[in-house]
Amino acid sequence: MTISNSEIAAIFEQLADLLEIRGENHFKIIAYRNAARTIENLGADISKMIDDGVNLPKIPTIGEHIAQKVKEIITTGKLSKLEDLKRSFPPHFIDILSIKGIGPKRAGTLYEKLHIDSLEDLREAAQNHKIRDLEGFDEKLERMILDGTKLSKKEGKRFMYSVAEPYADALIAYLKKSEEASKVIVAGSYRRKKDTVGDLDILATSKHPALLIDYFVKYPHIKEIISKGDTKSTVIFKNNMQIDIRCVPDDSYGAALHYFTGSKPHNISIRKMAIEMGLKVNEYGIFKGEEKIAGATEDEMYKTVGLCYIEPELRENRGELEAARDGKLPKLIDLKDIKGDLHIHTLYSDAQNSILEMAEAAKKLGYEYIAITDHSKHLAIVNGIDEKKIRQQIEEIDKINEKLNGITLLKGVEVDILEDGSLALPDHILKGLDIVVGGVHDKFKLSQDKQTKRILKAMDNQYFNILAHPTGRLLGERKAYDIDMELLFEEAKIRNCFLEINGQPKRLDLDDIYAKSAKEAGVKFILSTDAHNIATLDYMRYALFQARRGWIETKDVINTLPLDKFKKALQRS
Ligand code: DGT
Ligand code: CA
Ligand code: CA
Q: Among the four 282, 316, 361, 501, which has the fewest Cβ within 10 Å?
């Protein structure tokens, strides 16, 4: 896990804030702040600089003391001094520092005078006008604080992409109905297809932006209007989702789209590149002195700084600028490249449709093949299939294959990986199947060593093909289990086992970051839906989005191959 300069800087910033609230030595606090600024603006990855042998203490404002702390953050991901300090505050107190207008000094006052130690307290106090009379506050600031506490984003709640999607679609359809709207698009993390989104950022072009904003704030789903101006507005939906809208003139569309698509670190890097070329980039365009030389399209924006177009999914500052400059951007996989879905459940285990129904639906999606992979019988799974039911299923698949043209059904199973790494079905059953998908469904809390060995042992089985949802994370519910991912990648590659990118909206597992490092380790992937009914066969696109965010190309994905080649690719030597 690498930690970015901004993250390290944020840790020092927070340390300084908390020390200030504690009334610690002023010079110490300034030293941390200066170091944070230096690190933020270094221009090179600090962890890489250390690897390259750069002597950190020699860098102005860093010194021995801070260099040591930087090393601690890089090796452990956190700073024990900050963690200790945090523990000495009420658990939710620190959240109020995230509100615009509240720094350490004001946070201290709020705590001392009004005992405010959470966002809820803060909101209540602002609502009841208790803040305006405190020293260092006024009415305007009180209103700003109230607005800040209302923004759901600030409370840290994020929405799964699939949850945001219908809201985004409906809002775009509504906006397009207005005569005042010409182009309307969702930018931000949503356009980058991030697994979760903090809020929706809508960009529109209009000849009469104020009229479009008037129309926007009348959208029935709005619970609260946070702000409303002539060209922009922020509202909260009834489900607490925040929506930011911004209108720009047509000739700034590309610049604004680029700016609001982000990510912020990507934008910052582009801006740095431009500065080196003597250019200035902002949401209105690219400027050479006073003259605007680009801005209407994103293509033009990138060209002007000497790059080719970068897909939104790649804009995370994970090497895409260098790749674009060197002509080495990946040619990202597309939905139409996918020839089959290899993780499908039916009535035989815990799903809602029959084999035939799933097959016919898959055929309509244009697939050449699918695998039926019901759960093996095991304690953790309700209604898993045993040997007898598998034999029955094999017969049924044979019959369906005979009469169904245009798609081939592969016989498979999603077999449980037991605690000791053995599989929940015997080899003589697995041997008779076309494909074996293995997954962990219990004992999530084993130590890293045990969990890793468990999975590697399962992959040792000669019939094992695909590791389903490799990390087991469930968005908002369960963290990834502790595995040595680097080792997993290496060993999967050696065994010719494939890692799944599971499209269930809560799973999206592997995620983008692991997908990218797995690819770099030479691993190949299977994109699957894990569908439990016909409707969710179209979760494939969610798997695809994460794959694209992980720089995955068509050639990295086995189920882009036609059936004969696919079968060959599965063979273990
Ligand atoms: P989210 O909403 O947390 O899932 O993530 P984003 O990426 O949608 O972030 P958001 O909604 O705060 O801002 C939308 C975009 O606006 C962001 O991706 C990049 C741009 N942006 C926002 N603040 C800044 C900034 O301070 N500097 C630059 N360069 N860009 C910014
Ligand atoms: Ca956003
Ligand atoms: Ca936003």
A: 282
From 153, 192, 201, the mutation candidate for ligand 1 (largest count of ligand atoms within 8 A of CB) is: 201
Looking at the DSSP assignment, which residues form a beta bridge with residue 436? 413
Q: What's the CATH number for 159-248?
A: 3.30.460.10
Q: Is 189 in the pocket of ligand 1 (CB under 6 A)?
A: yes
Closest ligand 1 atom to Cα of 261: 18
Q: What is the pLDDT of residues 27-52, one digit of tens each?
A: 999 999 999 989 988 877 888 888 88
The residues placing their C-beta within 5 Å of ligand 2, an ion, are 188-189, 199, 201
For residues 199 and 241, the answer to whether their CB atoms sit within 8 Å is: yes
Sort 390 into a burial class: Cβ within 10 Å, 0-12 / 13-18 / 19+: buried
| 354-536-559 Cα angle (round to 5) | 90
Query: How far does residue 191's CA lie from ligand 1's centre (Å)?
Result: 12
> Pairing between strand 222-228 and 232-237?
antiparallel
Ligand nearest to the Cα of 189, by number: 1
Chain position carrying tokens 């925040």: 242
Task: Give start-end residues of each CATH 3.30.210.10 domain in the chain.
Answer: 264-325
Handedness of CA 36, 42, 45, 50 (dihedral sign): negative
Q: What is the pLDDT of residues 119-172, one digit of tens each?
A: 889 999 999 999 999 999 999 999 999 988 876 554 567 899 999 999 999 999
CATH 1.10.150.110 location in the chain: 5-154
Higher pLDDT, 121 or 489: 489
Determine the pLDDT at residue 152: 52
Statement: 5-154 belongs to CATH 1.10.150.110: yes
